[in-house]
Amino acid sequence: MASNLFQMPEKEDNETIAMAFRDRLIKKAGFKYVLDPLPMKNSKGAVVYYLFFASHNETGNKITKYIFQKYSKKMR
């Protein structure tokens, strides 16, 4: 995390925080399958929240990956 002139931490953007949370799901929580978070947007295109998937189940991972990819293409 970067700091400013007064050695105070700067605010991170939401995507950076979401990816850090994803890393914690893998490293600290020990989930075997963790997809990249899916940004959920409102009607104006602003990200409202991120949808995460974490599991130890390979089949669930494949199904969710397909759904995330389908939704991502739809939102472009």
Low-confidence stretches: none
Strand order of the largest sheet: 1-4
Which percent range fits the helix content?
Answer: 40-55%
* Number of individual domains: 1
Radius of gyration: 15 Å
User: In percent, how much strand structure appears in the residues?
Assistant: 15-25%
Mean pLDDT: 91
For the termini, the CA-CA separation is 30 Å
Count the E strands. Answer: 4
Q: What's the arrangement of secondary structure elements?
A:
Blueprint: H1 14-27, E1 33-34, E2 38-41, E3 47-51, E4 54-55, H2 58-74
Antiparallel strand pairs: 1-4, 2-3
Feature tags:
76 residues, 4 strands, two-stranded antiparallel sheet, alpha+beta, 41% helix
Structure description:
This protein is an alpha+beta fold and 76 residues long. The chain has one domain. 41% of the residues lie in helices and 17% in strands. The chain is built from 2 helices and 4 strands; from the N terminus they run αββββα. The protein has helices spanning 14-27, 58-74; strands spanning 33-34, 38-41, 47-51, 54-55. Strands 1-4 form a two-stranded antiparallel ribbon. β2 (38-41) and β3 form a beta hairpin. It is flat and about 50 Å long. The two termini are 30 Å apart.
Short description:
The chain has helices spanning 14-27, 58-74, and strands at residues 33-34, 38-41, 47-51, 54-55. With 76 residues, it is α+β, with helices and mostly antiparallel strands.
